[in-house]
Amino acid sequence: MAGHSFFPSEEIAQIKALACQLPAERGIPLSRFSITEIVREVISEAIVPSVSDSSVWRWLHEDAIRPWFHRSWIYPRDPKFIEKAGNVLDLYVKQWEGQSLGENDYVISADEKTSIQARIRKHLTSPPSLGEPMRVEHEYIRGGAWAYLAAWDVHRARIFGRCEAKTGIKPFNQLVKQVMSQPPYKTANRVFWIIDNGSSHRGKPFVARLQEKWPNAIAVHLPTHASWLNQIEIYFSIIQRKVLTPNDFPNLQAVEKRLLDFQTRYQEIARSFNWKFTRKDLKERIKLVSDHIIDQYQPVMLQSATESLANVYA
User: Fold this and answer.
1) Closest Cα to residue 305, out of 228, 73, 291?
2) Domain range 102-267, its CATH number among 3.10.20.340, 3.40.920.10, 3.30.420.10, 1.10.760.10
């Protein structure tokens, strides 16, 4: 490119390297860099005597470097992350402990979607019209909230759900009963329940409760911070888009009715999700994250991170 004839590649590389640092690492009181701030720092550090914003933007754009953007992120810390998450990914492809699932085995993905409010708007919502979108009043009165508990049959594309005043062991047990008390789950060989580590279904106590009441049910916990591997979250995202946005309900009962009516409507067209993320993909993703940890963590934290990752890959 024309701009490169005026700037040696070494200087361009230095500018890109600067853009890939956190401002705090350079003692600069910024949360993130903008193009203008990068240019200011480049000139201040005498990397180049002068340079335009457009040139710096073009060089960063070549390598898709965008330091003005940021993403919220949760790093895996469970030393058995791959082992636990891998069990769930195996179930998605009808495998368990190296063996194929039988015809009378079922996989259920379940969780709670909390605090679904009834927002009673202070003015009626107006429908869309020629050249105008739907208009929803900004101000509202809080009409209460539901917890929506749902279970998704991964391979048969069946959805079960209920609204409860709050989450907890008893409400979640009611969801389990709603599923397990009917065929084919009641007489199934095995019913695998994929859940996260929420307080309603956490750890060994939930495993014991489930097995005591339903001997053919097997709890499969995801590792901490792995709800993104729980297929019920896909259904919750559909609920959020199609049912709850915009949130405009006359009362709390209307929220429950719409949620449960949507279940019936969705069931008419439901198909198993086209899940493609495998154990191999998970290991590659964890490897990328672990490389980042090793590059970025301070030495005092590096030993702990390295020990955890060593256990993961052991």
Assistant:
1) 291
2) 3.30.420.10
